[in-house]
Write a structure and sequence with these properties.
By secondary structure, the protein is an alpha+beta fold. Helices cover about 35% and strands about 15% of the residues. The strands form 7 sheets. Strands 10, 11, 12, 15, 18, 19 and 20 form a 7-stranded antiparallel sheet that branches. Strands 21-9-5-22 form a 4-stranded parallel sheet, sandwiched between helices. It starts with 12 loop residues before the first strand and ends with a helix.
Length: about 600
Amino acid sequence: MPSKKVKKSPTKRLFRDPSGQEHMFEKSLEEELEAKKNAPVECLGMSFPNDEKRREYFLEKLREKLKDPEFRKIEGFPIGSDEDILALSDPPYYTACPNPFIADFIKQYGKPYLSAEASAQAGDPSKPYSREPFAVDVSEGKTDPIYKAHSYHTKVPHKAIMRYILHYTEPADLVFDGFCGTGMTGVAAQLCGDKAAVESLGYGVDKDGTISQQETDENGKTVWKPFSKLGARRAVLNDLSPAATFIAYNYNTPVDVNAFEREAKCILKEVEDECGWMYETNHSDGRIGKINYTVWSDVFICPDCASEIVFWDVAVDKNTWQVNDDFCCGGCGAKAGKRGLERAWISYFDDHSGQVNKTAKQVPVLIHYKLSGNTHIKRPNQNDLEVLGKIARAANPYWYPKDKLPDGDKMSDPRGVGIKIVSDFYTKRALYALSKYHDLARNSKLDGRLLANLTSSAIVLSRQYRFRSQGENLGAGGGPMNGTLYVPSLIKEIPVTKVIAQHIERMSKILSMFAKSNNILQTGSLSALPALEDESIDYVFIDPPFGSNIMYSELNFIWESWLRVKTNNKEEAIENRTQKKGIGEYRHLMASIMSHKLCICFWQYNF
């Protein structure tokens, strides 16, 4: 990967983002970063002149560790080169592999808790650890900005986890989550120190930080009873998936929000400058509009007359925008249904494989665009088709993933429409713009945060995004079908810059909430977590995978191909026919994981 350089820029910068809004920046990103260069930092008991020196020191330590063949033999070690693992990592706080600094982190911040018996033996019976079981129904919605900032197959709302952490722990305690996913346990641990966040749960917070909850006393009167203290907890987080831990890192590690927003928008403008013409369309009077989305439709072959059937033309009611199960061929009038039709195919020469491949034919059928503040729809005209042809013929000079789809239970759907490699999930213009953004993000000082924008957008921008409408509301709803890699017959293609701009806005709103790094993350199998001292973890929260419900490594394959580090699914605790894992194998893997003494403590003390 090219060396990271901060681009020179003027003291004042004015630019218009993809939404048309103008921004003036008084200082450039490099000036702001330069101003913070000499700020000393403390990390794991060591002092560094600045955060860059901290990162350099621990990256070198991790590099040395990666050269050890035994280190790579750790169960669940992800699939990726040393350089790609190092590029993602920010040690000691986050490693895209097993984290060799976890024991040091726990030694630095952990403290033994005492049971009532141990407390008495130590001569300090005043502070024994004692908690009643948490016996309250917990129900939290999924509309919180933090929850919605990044998509994932499943996650527990952080507010639900906060209730458990507040009940069982004290400020600065260590919380562990071995199946952390996108890191909501870490978010919850941090926000236990945020007064507004705690009060949003319905709790009261006194001036001294005492947290109280409403209870009913023996007389039936509602009273406020103290049960916890305000203060951030520290979290140790683990997951098998590099995509999951990378997203978790971005949730759980502080960043200069202003610098993030400025750099992200500047990069987005560069993408817009080079690729914006790909998402333009001409109005009836010749003026140029900006595309909001394009609908692509499958094409089938009529079994009676052999003519092509454009699914959009015959199956979609243009008054209600609903899709009908049965329809008639536009050529001969024969009645048909989607299930009984064969696809039309297009043959093409694949430069990557050097072979002639075929892909299911899809054609653009509707363009929704904006012009002078008003929205319009149109059928693609000859000019639109010529632009798409020009894009298809253009060479893409930027790196993009060309990984072959692995065998898997969820891979039959994409293969059924001719998708063989990751890049086949994208239209030509989406792939070009996304790879342009990836190139700029990889060479930025804020690469980790900016690549998080890409991982959030990679699925939305793929051909999995469904066109859906609600009644007469054209284009409402949509999105990929959860838990699958399904490519629908009607695809809603949204411009890359529009999708990433929306994610930048969502992330900017929440990143300011995390001002201090309290957590440490690693990528690997929970069963291979390094040995820790007894009673060094105060609370364990676990939300494990559930059998055959979600095929995490398969569904994360697109994300991880962009990140260049992939899940080692040998230790993946799921039921999966392709991996030859049935209920017995799943039970064995879960037993192996739960035999870890951290998990034994969890089951012993919380159930």
